[in-house]
Specification:
The structure holds two protein chains of two kinds. Chain A is an alpha/beta fold. The N terminus of chain A is likely disordered. Chain A has five helices and six strands; from the N terminus they run ααββββαβαβα. The N and C termini of chain B lie far apart (68 Å). The chains are: A alpha/beta, B alpha/beta.
């Protein structure tokens, strides 16, 4: 213990001189800290962590193989420009019913609940908007309907729509 | 008076740990920040409820603008040069006519089979060109692709 004490006091004495030297190279870090904090706030405010979302779409391959679908499980949704939506079941091809976009979600839920094997065919007019397609597919995804296909809206379909629309 | 002086000395704080943390944070943000390059094609994307994130790399982006024009871009500069020539190296996307889009897509996929196809269409784009693009994609055996959308909150 005593030895240690002596050693300590010795080092203390030596340290005094050294401490003085050390004090001489003390730098004021305040400006650096200021700048660093400024940079930090800049990077924190400009960083965007969010990455774009995507919606995955699976289309059937382009082949001549025709898949037979029971007409009773087929739901056809036709979309005219201005987001006019018409739907019918496959077994009643001319009984088109017009609904609004808001009514689509309950309809899909009800159909999917009654017919678990539901297959949906979406036909969109070329003059419609791309966002309409995204909205409709989004609704299908929300209703957990994974089995859907997209087909072009043919003249025949347009005639059917114009008949209903009057 | 001496009592007052002692009190003043008492509120001196050692800032070293704070500065350490701040510097760490700073380096983190500086390393992770990626500045967005100006887009060659301006597209306002529609919104959906899908929460699937866009993959980071190996992306082949097909743009469909409001006017119905199609652009194609890949995320590697080397492949851009290979597909579209030297001037295209530093561009994000090049206008590609629908008639040759299919061939270009196939070429890109031959060069990098890992490429994932992503379609970025403008909200106000007509559906017609989009239908053509999807037709081309299916013909090029790309039956699975992603549509870029904004996240829509609420119902």
């Amino acid at each position: 213990m005593a030895g240690a004490d002596v050693a300590e006091s010795k080092s203390h004495e030596k340290g005094k001189k050294r401490k003085k030297k050390r004090l001489a190279i003390r730098i004021d870090m305040t400006p650096m800290v200021d700048v660093v904090l400024l940079l930090l706030t800049f990077f924190m405010l400009t960083t965007v962590f969010s990455k774009p979302q995507t919606m995955e779409l699976n289309l059937p391959p382009d082949s001549d193989i025709r898949v037979e679908v029971a007409a009773t499980t087929l739901l056809i949704i036709r979309v005219a420009p201005n987001m006019d939506i018409y739907w019918n079941m496959g077994n009643e091809p001319t009984a088109l019913k017009k609904i609004t976009f808001k009514e689509l979600r309950p309809l899909l839920a009800e159909r999917f609940h009654n017919i678990p094997k539901l297959i949906t065919l979406v036909q969109i007019d070329r003059a419609a908007k791309y966002s309409d397609m995204v909205d409709i597919i989004d609704e299908l995804n929300l209703a957990n309907i994974t089995r859907f296909s997209i087909a072009p809206l043919k003249d025949l379909d347009k005639k059917l729509i114009s008949k209903v629309a009057g | 008076m001496p009592k007052h002086k002692k009190k003043r000395l008492g509120v001196r704080i050692d800032m070293t740990p704070m500065v350490d943390v701040v510097l760490l944070l700073l380096t983190f943000f500086m390393m992770t920040t990626q500045f967005k390059a100006p887009e060659d094609v301006e597209v306002i994307i529609p919104s959906s409820h899908s929460e699937f994130k866009l993959p980071e790399s190996n992306i082949m982006m097909v743009y469909v603008t409001k006017e119905g024009k199609t652009f194609l871009g890949v995320d590697s500069q080397g492949l851009m040069e290979k597909l579209f020539g030297k001037e295209a190296r530093y561009k994000r996307a090049i206008e590609v006519d629908k008639s040759i889009l299919g061939n270009t897509l196939i070429q890109a996929r031959i060069n990098n089979p890992k490429l994932r196809t992503v379609v970025k269409g403008d909200k106000d784009a007509p559906y017609g060109p989009m239908e053509d693009v999807m037709d081309v994609l299916v013909k090029a055996q790309i039956t699975r692709f992603n549509l870029v959308t904004d996240l829509e909150r609420g119902v």
